[in-house]
Amino acid sequence: MKTIKIKPVQIIGQCRAGLTVDDECQIKGMNLAAVGRSKLCFLALGHFAPIVAQLQSGKRFYAHLACPDCLSRRDQENGVEFLLGHADKWALCRAISDYYHLSGLGPESEAAKQLKAEARQLQTAGSYGPATQKMVQAVAELKRAVAL
Question: pTM for the whole thing?
């Protein structure tokens, strides 16, 4: 089975479990472990089982999920978004996540769109290392575009 990493990538307001973007856990087979001194959220982890099954089967290699506790508390501006992904493709998962969040801050430049498209072609072909390099370049280009 694939090792799956789980990490909060965006926190709006406060997480009731006290998670921060520095927390990380991983699932190896059927075992869950916090990385370092990271915390775990029982409610969020219970929501991840179907996506973890898809990730471990290889149907996908990353996913974003929102904490169900945060979604159920509409009266508060709280939200935790998690990134889940294959440990062996974690750098690509992080770059895709970074790009996704940056793209919400402003328009994508043509150069960033082109690099993202090239990264997708490479990942579809199974060339994850080169896809990661292209996606990191796309993130850097998007940062420049958003900063303008």
Answer: 0.87
